[in-house]
Amino acid sequence: MRGTRHRTRSLLAASAAVAGLLVPGAVYAAGHVGAAAAAAPPAPEPSGAECRTSVHGSRVIAYCHNPYPSTDRVQLHTDCARWWDIDADSRPVAVGPGRTVRLDDRCWKEVGSAWVTHSNETRPAT
User: Fold this and answer.
1) DSSP 109
2) In what order do the strands lie in the sheet with 59-65?
3) First CA to last CA across the chain, in angstroms?
4) Which residues on neighbouring strands pair with residue 52, listed in sequence order?
5) Tell me, what DSSP letter sits at residue 121?
6) Which residues, 6+ apart, have CB-to-CB distance to 94 below 8 Å?
7) Three-state SS at 39
8) How far is CA 71 from CA 1, 46, 92, 103, 124, in A?
9) Residue 58 gets which letter from DSSP?
């Protein structure tokens, strides 16, 4: 019976010693993880309308839908294929939350390229 008590005390003492060595390391690691999470900047809110652009002959049509809570301003840019054909930029259009807008433009002949740019500014178009 004496051997069992001695063994139990030895195991308890060894467990306490191991716990005493591990706890400071765990507290240190937890402090660094918490500090890193607190110092990280907040993730930006998703924003921006999704636009689908199609070219039909000399016409360009873009539909932009904004699923986010902030307003996005979109603008269609058209480059015409012919050097003498005038390239065009549409007026910026505000796309409110949950809204869809249509932008269109044309060239006299073929369209070289077309794209839509975005801006989060909420000032009215001029």
Assistant:
1) S
2) 50-56, 59-65, 100-106
3) 95
4) 63
5) -
6) 71, 72, 73, 122, 124, 125
7) helix
8) 79, 11, 12, 16, 12
9) T
Distances (CA, A) of 28 to 32, 33, 35, 45, 63: 6, 9, 11, 32, 53
Annotate 60-108 with DSSP letters as a single string.
EEEEEE--SSS-EEEEEEEEESSTTSPPEEPPPEEE-TT-EEEEEEE-S
Q: Which two tokens mark 70?
A: 């902030």
- The whole-model pTM stands at 0.61
Q: List the one residue out of 62, 57, 58 whose CA is nearest residue 115.
A: 62
**62-102 per-position pLDDT tens digit:** 999 999 999 999 999 999 999 998 888 999 999 999 999 99
Query: What count of residues does the chain have?
Result: 126
β pairing state of 88-89 and 93-95: unpaired
Query: Quick one: pLDDT at residue 52?
Result: 96
pLDDT of residue 47: 75
Name residue 115's beta-bridge partners.
77
